[in-house]
Amino acid sequence: MKRLGLLAATGTTALVLGASVPARALIVFDPSNYVQNVLTAARELQQINNQITSLQNEAQMLINQAKNLANLPYSSLRQLQSSIQRTQQLLAQAQRIAYDVQQIDRAFSTSYAPATSSQSNQLLISNAQSRWQNSYAATQDALRVQAGIVGNLDTNRIQSSALVTSSQDASGALQAMQAGNQILALNAQQLADLTAVVAAQGRAQSLEAAQRVSAQDQGREQLRRFLTPGQGYQSSNVQMFH
Hints:
Layout: H1 2-20, H2 31-68, H3 77-92, H4 101-108, H5 121-168, H6 173-227, H7 232-241
Helix pairs in contact: 3-5, 3-6, 5-6, 6-7
C-alpha cells in the first residue's frame, strides 16, 4: 500500500510540474530545418551581392561612356587657321604676274611673246624691262613666303607638342580621336606651307627662265635689225657710234 501511495504522489507531482513549465521550453530544435534556413539566407545574400556587383559594373560602364564622350579640352584649330591665313595672304600679295591663269596668258602674249619685226625698238626695250621687273618681284615674293612659313615653324612645334600630350592624356575614345584629327590638321597645314613654298619658288624660277628665253629671242631680233640695211635701229646706232 505504501508503494502505491508513493507512486501516486510522484505522478501527481509530475503532472503539477508539467503544468507549471512555460510553453517555449517545450520547443524542439530541428537541425534539418535550421540548415535549410541558413542556406536560404545565404542564397538571398548571394543574390544581393550579385545585384550590387551588377550595379557597380553598370556605374563603371556609364563612367567609361562619359569619358568616351568627353570633348578634348585643348584645341589648336584657331592657331592652325591663323597660320594658313598668313600663308594665303602672302600668296595673295604676289606682285605683277600673280597666281592667275588669265594674267599669265596676257603676259606671255605681250611682254614674253616672241620678238617680231613689227615691234618698235622702244617696245622691245619696254618688254625687256617688264620681264626683269617680273623676275625681280617673283624672287622677292618667294623669299617673303619662305620667311612667313619659317615664322610658322615655332607655332607648329608648340601645337604639335600640345596635341601629342593631349593624345597621350586622353581619357576616352572621343578625346583620343579629336587629338588625332587635330594632329592630322596640323600635318595638312604644314603640307600647305610646303606647297606654298614650292609654288612661290617655282613661280620665280619659271619667270626667270622665261626672261632668259625672251632675252635671247629679243637679242637675235636686235642683231638682225642691226645687220639688216635700212633698219632704223641700224641707222640710229651708226649715228650713236659717230
